[in-house]
Amino acid sequence: MSTPSRVNIADYLVDIALRRPHALAVVFPDGADAAGRVRYTHLTYAQLNAESDRLAAGLIAEGIGPGVRTVLMTPPSLDFFALVFALFKVGAVMVCVDPGLGIKHLGRCLAEAEPNAFVGVAKAHWARRLFGWAKKTIRKNIVVGTGPATWTCGTPLAEIARRGDQRIKDEGLSVPESPFPAPSQASHLKPHASSDAAAILFTSGSTGPPKGVVYTHANFDAQLRALRDAFDIRPGEIDLATFPLFALYAPALGMTAIVPDMDFTRPGSVDPTKIAQAIDDFGVTNLFGSPALLDRVSRWGLDAGRKFPTLRRVISAGAPVPVRVIQRTTAMLAPGVQVFTPYGATESLPVASIGSEEILGETRRASEQGRGVCVGRPVGDATVRVIHIRDDAIERWSDDLLVASGAVGEIVVSGPAVTAAYHARGEATRLAKIADASQPTGFWHRMGDVGYFDDRGRLWFCGRKSQRVRLAGGDLFTDPCEGVFNVHPDVRRSALVGVGQNGQTRPVVCVELVESPRESPDAIRAELLRLAGTFEHTRAIRDVLFHPAFPVDIRHNAKIGREALARWAAERLR
Known about the structure:
Elements: H1 11-19, E1 24-32, E2 38-44, H2 45-61, E3 69-73, H3 78-90, E4 93-96, H4 103-113, E5 117-121, H5 122-131, E6 140-144, H6 150-153, E7 155-156, H7 157-170, E8 197-202, E9 212-216, H8 217-231, E10 238-241, H9 244-252, E11 256-258, H10 272-282, E12 286-288, H11 291-304, E13 313-315, H12 323-331, E14 338-340, E15 343-345, E16 348-353, H13 356-368, E17 373-378, E18 383-387, E19 409-414, H14 426-432, E20 433-435, E21 443-453, E22 459-464, E23 469-471, E24 474-476, H15 478-485, E25 491-501, E26 504-513, H16 521-532, E27 543-546, H17 562-573
Parallel strand pairs: 1-11, 3-4, 3-5, 4-8, 5-6, 6-7, 10-11, 10-12, 12-13, 13-14, 26-27
Antiparallel strand pairs: 1-2, 8-9, 15-16, 16-17, 17-22, 18-19, 19-21, 20-21, 21-22, 23-24, 25-26
Helix pairs in contact: 1-2, 2-3, 2-7, 10-11, 11-12, 12-13
């Protein structure tokens, strides 16, 4: 599919505001009434478009315009959505770093991004000043929210909006209550080339230091189209926005974004009753949730006998979704409604997708026998290949890189949704990209994951390349090994790690048990070792260690922190 030479992701909002001005765009919880019922506040599409126009005009007056790298550090709210589209409209480069990464990572990420402006809630500004985040480059500070200390943190957002109103009136543009014309028609909203940077989104850092992924407007446009087509998302649907990044897509796809009452940095600790109430209050049709969130909600739903008949689909990503979670979640849905588990990464999403009907009806059996996790077929314009595993850079593409059909190798992808570079990380970009003039984008992205294609064109995920356990007799891959152990009813999840001893690598499986295991640890260990001996690729595993609670990634609370587990296992075996 060809990409327009000039595109701005905010154009989607403008278009919907013109066609469906009174439809709800964003709904946000605003406390509770005397009876304990949740109160909500909202923005229609016309209001969201007008508010983002107002803020865009104010940002320009503040000196924040095309190419200005601008940190946005505010939790999902009405202001959050308006600011995102305002930054897109003026051509600024939005810098997003998950606050849950921790102070050390936050400081390093922001220093690397070299932002020129910082927009955030007062708490974020206090941390910025206390820890000196990007103090050498930040020149403009805007504070979101109200309170007596607002002016001490920077220019209040309300003042930015006031300046925007004044600029709009001075230029004789549309009144704030009416949808603006397309950005290219407004004097303070300039068209941008599709290749222009739109955002720098930092990875979760679950397998290494977080890296800033550079998104262009064309990347966002391709992602929107792929998500819309892959899941048949239609304007007028109601989305429950449990993950901020996906929440950005809801208004652009014509959905109403319902923001639930939750801590977005801890989805695995969500209150299921609040998720259920939001679904019931608005008749939610689309739910995107991390595996950890679905795990918690489905456990509660199973015990409470809850059903969600309005949901048309559930989408979960960020880590492989356990079959048990898929089963429990599907039990809460209407007949024929599926749980979809798209595969991808910050650098490229979506790459492939599969639904629960195929998982539960077929592929789960192969996963339990150690064949990995089926992530489905490529979606949208993504072209996916599997190449020989290498840890060094690959400068140019050659068909000699391809593995034989069915063999495990590194997954690579090319297409318009695939990002081209990391910000200020030349070596990381070199390691992750393979030049190929025959591809429309000119390159392949190395996912850093290993997997294979089956004879039906489905992609199977076998784990992270960096987390494979290298033995003299060959490599062990995490997910095929763990699939064998996860079959045991007392195992919540397992993790294969390698422990170095006496110059050799020792494969160890760490196990997190369910809350109330039926058998003793010794009995479980014996059964797991028996299972390991059943399959050729797990016979080398002789050690099973029980861990009380696995470390997980910050963003989704789902990816297992295998590097930390490896250090723990080494201490236990010392």
